[in-house]
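Summary of Year 1 activities. Much of the first year was spent building the evaluation harness for sequence design. The harness presents a backbone, in tokenized form, and records the residue chosen at every position. We chose the following record to illustrate the format because it has been used consistently in internal testing since the harness was completed.
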């Protein structure tokens, strides 16, 4: 059973990863978009950046709930040279600041709207480094299940799956409100492939890279993870991806830019699966040695 004070970490890590994943999805959209003169494209940029900012604000708010005394968080910065936690805090702050600069340049033309592409790329790069630092916080020698390549891979696949899913939902909401971006079908196609790549890597990570708890426990007492919980996670992952694939193959070609309820249901299933996976990640913690 996971401690109740670890739930804020679930939300902090996942929301941060969704934020960075939205930027990955946004980059793919800008690369693939053809009608750059569409006025709704500017609105889409603003909504994506605002959503990424909101995810980070909420993520940081939840991170403070994990601390017994939030005022002591400043001491985590005292060991920046060797502490991945210190690096994570600094990078989270820089990432959020860069996102705010992106929005200000786009919305208020400060310092200038023409700087948005450079600021966007800087935010994306900072976000990726931030996610890597976040994964390194958990890769400690005394936590064998966490101290593997499976940890950063899991964090980045969450960014791809749920970040791409968030962009897909936002595009659907634009269509639902009667203001679709002209290239919405091609954009949604790009997001489907991004999510598909994330799901594929996630499954490979689970099956081939993530060590089994019995193989690393040795003589130490390891936690027991219920099989039903693992099955629950896989079931929702496969259900979500199956629904999304059906939507992509049979509904999207007919409706063009679509706000299909099936698409929203698919993303909900993927979200539930990822929450279950992150719960399993934290509940699997145990120490070996000292």
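For this record, the design step produced the sequence shown next.
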């Amino acid at each position: 059973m996971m401690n109740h004070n670890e739930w804020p970490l679930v939300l902090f890590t996942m929301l941060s990863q969704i934020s960075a994943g939205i930027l990955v999805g946004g980059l793919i959209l800008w690369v693939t978009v053809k009608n750059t003169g569409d006025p709704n494209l500017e609105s889409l940029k603003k909504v994506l950046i605002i959503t990424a900012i909101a995810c980070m604000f909420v993520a940081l708010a939840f991170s403070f709930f994990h601390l017994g005394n939030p005022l002591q968080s400043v001491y985590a910065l005292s060991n920046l040279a060797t502490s991945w936690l210190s690096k994570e805090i600094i990078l989270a702050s820089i990432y959020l600041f860069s996102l705010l600069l992106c929005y200000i340049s786009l919305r208020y033309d400060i310092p200038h709207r023409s700087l948005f592409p450079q600021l966007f790329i800087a935010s994306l790069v900072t976000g990726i480094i931030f996610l890597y630092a976040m994964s390194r916080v958990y890769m400690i020698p005394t936590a064998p299940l966490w101290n593997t390549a499976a940890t950063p891979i899991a964090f980045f696949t969450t960014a791809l799956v749920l970040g791409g899913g968030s962009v897909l939902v936002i595009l659907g909401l634009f269509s639902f409100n009667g203001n679709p971006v002209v290239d919405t079908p091609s954009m949604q196609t790009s997001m489907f492939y991004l999510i598909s790549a994330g799901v594929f890597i996630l499954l490979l990570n689970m099956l081939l890279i993530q060590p089994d708890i019995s193989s690393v426990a040795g003589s130490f007492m390891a936690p027991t993870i219920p099989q039903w919980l693992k099955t629950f996670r896989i079931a929702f992952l496969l259900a979500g991806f199956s629904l999304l694939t059906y939507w992509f193959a049979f509904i999207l070609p007919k409706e063009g830019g679509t706000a299909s309820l099936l698409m929203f249901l698919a993303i909900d299933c993927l979200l539930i699966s990822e929450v279950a996976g992150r719960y399993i990640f934290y509940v699997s913690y145990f120490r070996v040695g000292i």
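The radius of gyration is 20 Å. Quantitative recovery figures across the full test set are reported in Table 2.
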